[in-house]
Amino acid sequence: MSLTRERIEGLAPDQASLAAALKLVKPAGWPVLAASTDAEVLWGECQGSGATPYRVVTAADGGGYKCSCPSRKFPCKHVLAVLWLRVDKPERFETASPPQWVEDWSARRRGTSSRPGKPRPEGDDAGAPPSLDAALADAATTAPADPKAAARAEAQRERIKAEREAAILAGLDELEHWIADQLNQGLADFATRAAAAGRTLSTRLVDAKAGGLAARLDQLGTELFRVGDERRADLAIERLGAMTLIASAYRHQDRLPAPLREDVRRTVGWSVRREELLADPSAPRASSVWIVAANLSEVQPDKIRRLETWLVNASNDISQPRAAVLVDFVPVSSGGAGFPFAPGEVIDGEVVFYPSAAPLRGLLASRKTSGAASWPRPLPGLAPALQDYAAKLAALPWLDRWPLLLSGVALRTAGKGALAIIDASGEAIAVERGQEDQLAPLLGLDDLSLLCLWDGRTAQVLAADTPLGRWHHED
After folding, report:
1. Considering the domain boundaries, does residue 401 fall inside one?
2. Where are the alpha helices (DSSP H) in 186-210?
3. Distance between terminal CA atoms of the chain?
4. β-pairing, 448-454 with 458-466?
């Protein structure tokens, strides 16, 4: 069955789905649109509100489909948009060999019939059949602008913003008083009381719209019990000191450089919408070939799963960022982690970084098909990477961790089952406890290139390029 507008209308579960799909029928929102060489399978990646795109694959006639979005409608708006684009703008589809995730879907689908669509409502709930023309007509009908209504809406936004600023400042007062109380009680047993002591304050910080600081407070108890007894007091002082510094920086943000001001506002809890970041001409950008180094998943105390996709810049241009991280958040109740890219994949695209004194987190603004890429070779040894970390820490004093891109190093045992990264000069840094079994295949190999996360004390190894091939962290 060939793909026609009538076919798309027949697949749509309702008119609202077609109206939603129309908003997505913009090639700029699809960094990837492709068709198989036999034109039987279409796939694409649609940039949603998160850092990573939704992946869509469909038979060319719409007889089968899959999308990584959480919609409960089948087919979802993303599938309908791909089909709509195929009908109206077929020249936008690149002819290419399907990537592995498309191949996997095709393999599962072979020998099975297409999934039937949901029945349309009947009786009082039944409406007119979904229509592309109706969706286009609705989109073309816009209400005239009302200057007075626009002015009232702007005034309301300013009032809400002012109220939030006041609430945050009040929350910072409570945080500073709480920290002073903890110091007065002493830090000898702080780890045992940290979670209970901070629970009420964390709730108040959330109410005060300072969710970023609330999250730091919620994580403090867990962090303290991850380290040995001998380190807990020092770590507690560091974390409490960082929160005090953030509170002070927020109060004096008008005196900070613009990138650091953006850092402190995001750290406290303000967010930047994807559309705003992509439209910001001052946001740092890097177009390059990126290697997916690792996927990390962490369940936060608020039952939200934080998904991190770590990228390594394959370019040896030292003026470009060496690494980037794409971050998404999904409810734990949604099930699987849902990472959009697998470790080892290669992305040819542009990353737009959030303005920062130490740019690292970003969004994938565009992407095109790419083949293999060589691992970059930075200056050998630990010293250059550690000097870069020191510079970033000076620029962003509450920096928790920073990626180190290393070359010419080796992994060695360091007694009591511990591991260390060592360079040719004999300089060494400790590897995070718990990675010993994972990293066993790398022991004994020389001239390694590594991507590590460094917190100033220990390194978590995310990926390695070795004479025998590449190794990627499995979360």
Report:
1. yes
2. 190-207
3. 43
4. antiparallel
What is the bridge-based pairing of β-strands 54-59 and 323-331?
unpaired
* pLDDT reading at 124 higher than 60: no
Distance between CA 64 and CA 110 in Å, rounded?
11
Residue 442 near residue 471, CB atoms below 8 Å: yes
- Tens digit of each residue's pLDDT (9 = 90 or more) over 219-242: 888 888 888 888 888 889 999 999
Q: Could you read off the pLDDT of 417-437 as tens digits, one per residue?
A: 899 999 999 999 999 988 999
> Looking at the 3D structure of the chain, how many domains does it have?
4
Q: How many CB atoms lie within 10 A of CB 85?
A: 22
For residue 119, what pLDDT is reported?
42
Q: What are the tokens at 275?
A: 């559309």
Which residues constitute the domain of residue 57? 5-140
Judged against a pLDDT cut of 80, whether residue 284 lies above it is answered with yes
Q: Which of 1, 3, 105 is nearest to 44 (CA)?
A: 105
CB-CB neighbours of 469 under 10 Å: 8
Which amino acid is it at 136? Answer: L
413, 443 Cβ separation under 8 angstroms:
yes
CATH code for the domain in which residue 338 is found: 2.40.50
Please, which residues have CB within 8 angstroms of residue 284's CB and are 6 or more apart in sequence?
Answer: 321, 352, 353, 355, 359
Is the pTM of the predicted complex or chain greater than 0.90? no
Shortest CA distance to 280 belongs to which of 262, 266, 298? 262
